[in-house]
Amino acid sequence: MATRQYEVVAHAIAENILQGHFGIGSKLPPERATAGQYAVSRSTVRRAWRELEAMGYIMWSDQSTPIVVRPPQWPQRVERSAAGRLAYDTSPTFLGDLMQAAVSSARYNFEIGMPDPDLLPIQDFQQILRELFSYPSREVFGYSPTLGLERVRRAIVEEFIMRRGFAVPPANVLVTAGSLQGLDLLTRLWVRRGDVIVTESPTFAGALHVFRSHGAEVIGIPIDASGIRVDVLESSLRTIQPRFVYVQPVGQNPTGVTMSRERQAQLMAWAKKSGVPLVEDDAYGFLAETGAPPLSADAVGVPIVYLNTFSKILAPGIRVGFLTAPSDLIRQLVSLKQLSDLHTGTLSQLVAEGWLRQGRVDAHIQRARTVYGARLKTVSKVLKSVSELTPFAEPSHGFYVFAQLPAGISAQRLHNRASERDILFAPGEPFSPHGDFSQWIRLAVSAQPTAQIETGIRRLARLIDDLL
What we know:
CATH class of the largest domain: Alpha Beta
Number of strands: 15
Shape: globular
Distance between the termini: 58 Å
Largest sheet: 8 strands, mixed
Strand order of the largest sheet: 4-11-10-9-8-5-6-7
CATH superfamily of the largest domain: Type I PLP-dependent aspartate aminotransferase-like (Major domain)
Oligomer: single chain
Strand content: 5-15%
Number of helices: 17
Structural class: alpha/beta
């Protein structure tokens, strides 16, 4: 069989990589230049890049120039799956960078939203673990039902969900490895390539990563200080039937906005009329004072799935979350979960259940509200005194402040420069369904003392001045 043109080009580029002409992390020449160099069409160049990607030489999405990642580790061509290919559309390193930031020693770390380590109930954990380790190991270290241990689901209902103002039977609770797994299971069940999912804009970057990895088309609806613009939602979806609408009504990530009661009522009325399911992510709900109930507290006649997690109010490392849904949907999600991890870790479930049953949940929540609320006030005060950062809103609870940079300043460029100065934050573009917010940054202030918040933001403002 004759060698095809794109194979010739791919082989030539591969040889250049192997000979060190293109180092790991470097970009290949642009499409037009490569086409001219090899006297082929631009479509041939793209086919060659696709071949090199499949062989493991480069990383490439259709909107970027290929980056050399390594010589191939496999002896033959390995096609990347559709999910693997689509995952690149949401900045392939973004979530990994966030996880790396969690263990960074940077002095001013505003990159990842995590609880303050000083709020961890260490003594409670020690007591719970001593008690658990006195049990027969079969109960603590054995398998559990995919749905989750019954005693754990009952504790979640009685000590967690009911504190958010509603109740469901334990049979309607699925315990997950964090709320993101629940979102992935829902998307795997409901979404096929080309289906539409609606989100707020901006929204949780991890959710966008999940949706796009399953081939969904994501439509972002703008939000303001009162939450999602339901009027825009209604006008945008007159001829479109989305699979579901994903919202964060309380302490929204990344803006910190909480949906007003009026806006909640409008959204619920639209969902009831349209029949489109709502997927409610309530990860930050407990950090709001009374008066910010979840949508699920008033969900009569509205198709809604509720997601929550212990990662924000307790500890992210135990990896326990849950979702609530009708029984038939729960059964289908259990079948999917069995294909990935069989069940959430038994020990982690029992640690969460032990904490819930210790009787100090309200005191812990109130302390967290006080600490995080004070930190957000500090951010608001500092931002009012500097002109380089303009906040999207002035949140009173949650972990985050979303702020706009001056014209001409790229968030990614600033991120690269700031990280050299011991200042970390999350660039805004990965939070966008449409590639917007390249001049916005998310500041996670939950794990930083107030003195470091003030100093770190002022240092960041001076760095922005230097770039202007």
